[in-house]
Amino acid sequence: KTVFLIHGPNLNLLGKREPTIYGSDTLDDVAARCAALAKPAKLDLKSMQSNHEGQIIDWIHEARDAAAAIIINPGAFTHTSVAIYDALQAYEGLVFEVHISNVHKREAFRHHSYVSARAEGVIAGFGVEGYELALRRVISLLG
Ligand code: DQA
């Protein structure tokens, strides 16, 4: 089975961007740690990142035939994108939403997520470890 790990805008800068909020690990570190978890569970983990809303939507469409679960950090699109929500509604597999920071402790505009209404679970404020926690849950559900 395949799992898509989708990172949204500005997360290509992870490790360099506001390290006091997002930490010093890079996206490559996250991909490597998640791949190490996925391998013994015989899951094929595909990590992807885009700064473009349309690209993220295209990947969610692709997941319809290709992935049993999506773990997504939509970045700022979390708070703005009805289109990503609609794409996830058209997807039938598992969806987990991850935020590195605790969005509820931050600006009010980060408190609402369009994606949460479609997610089986939401993780926020566990740093990049949140990705591994979400993946562990996917492994229990798919295993
Ligand atoms: C984020 C939180 C969002 O509010 C922000 O726009 C991001 C990252 C997080 O992982 O904490 O880009 O999704």
From TrEMBL:
The active site is at residues 22, 99. Its EC number is 4.2.1.10. Substrate binds at residues 73, 79, 86, 100-101, 110. Pathway: Metabolic intermediate biosynthesis; chorismate biosynthesis; chorismate from D-erythrose 4-phosphate and phosphoenolpyruvate: step 3/7. The record marks 17 as: Transition state stabilizer. InterPro entries: DHquinase_II (IPR001874), DHquinase_II_CS (IPR018509), DHquinase_II_sf (IPR036441). Keywords: Amino-acid biosynthesis, Aromatic amino acid biosynthesis, Lyase. It catalyses: 3-dehydroquinate = 3-dehydroshikimate + H2O. Catalyzes a trans-dehydration via an enolate intermediate. Belongs to the type-II 3-dehydroquinase family. PANTHER family: CATABOLIC 3-DEHYDROQUINASE (PTHR21272). NCBIfam families: aroQ, PRK05395.1-2, PRK05395.1-3, PRK05395.1-4. Homododecamer. HAMAP family: AroQ (MF_00169). This is 3-dehydroquinate dehydratase. It comes from Marivita lacus. The lineage of its organism: Bacteria, Pseudomonadati, Pseudomonadota, Alphaproteobacteria, Rhodobacterales. The gene is aroQ.
